Amino acid sequence: MSDPLTLRFASTIRARRSGLTDALATPEGLTTWVRDQDLSPYLDTSTFTADEPVREQTVDLRQAVRALFAQAVAPTPPSTADAAALPPFPDALALVNATAAPLSRQLEWRDTWQERVDPTVEGDGARLGAALANAAIDFFAGPLPAQVRVCPAPRCVLYFIKRHPRQEWCSVACGNRARAARHYQQHR
């Protein structure tokens, strides 16, 4: 099962052996990430090319979304990746709502159900922000936030959706790393 767009967006910060990596660290990185996503009907990702101002706005939005994830897992501590750099929750919520506002969504029927999106803003950057903010609104207004957890594995900085009652980590690799660290501590 593929993760929701909002979780993939928040997961553009990852931990590697060398430290944190940010898929959105450069305009080229943002362009690559966006082209790998399905953002229709908001944005044609095949023609999207980011510049530095769009990258900065997108990173600010990602930090706001990560603040919403931090709120979703409270009172559990948030991800260690950027907990100190997250905006306050009210500011994060306001940014997500303001970024989502320029789109009008309507449901239509033409032999099948279809969503029609009327962007009231120009520019791919604004449409990208609106698409990501609307995805966050859909995600956090649904049932999944109750299942969001912070991965407790050493060095992992990801949030994940607990899909099974016994699931403790975001991935098998993190589970193995956590068990190895626990074994090392016990036999030290």
From TrEMBL:
Domain named Zinc finger CGNR: residues: 148-186
PANTHER family, per database record: BLL6575 PROTEIN
Designated name of the protein: Zinc finger CGNR domain-containing protein
Protein's organism: Actinomadura rudentiformis
